[in-house]
Amino acid sequence: xxxxWNDTVLATSNDTVLLEGNHYFxxxxxxxxxxxxxxxxxxxxxxxxxxxxxxxxxxxxxPDAAWYYPEPKPAxxxxxxxxxxxxxxxxxxx
Length: 94
Known about the structure:
The protein has no helices and 9 strands. The strands form 3 sheets. A 4-stranded antiparallel β-sheet has the order 5-6-7-8, with no helix packed on it. By secondary structure, the chain is mainly beta. The chain has a single domain (2-92), classed as Metal Binding Protein, Guanine Nucleotide Exchange Factor, Chain A, CATH 2.170.150.40.
């Protein structure tokens, strides 16, 4: 799978975890040049607290377009540290 935004590949992996319609990419599959930590957090009752990244390609920014669970609850251990996308990031087969 590939995560693409602004014609730029943000992540590529053959090892994503599909959960609730979202592909969670392993952290090593991300091209770190395009990610900045965000101050945003949100809480899912069964997954835990999500942390976010802002995606930046050139001068274009997509705030909080990627999220991950560094310490998920027991039911969501399969996505520990993995990154998912939204806000216009296109996820497609490689």
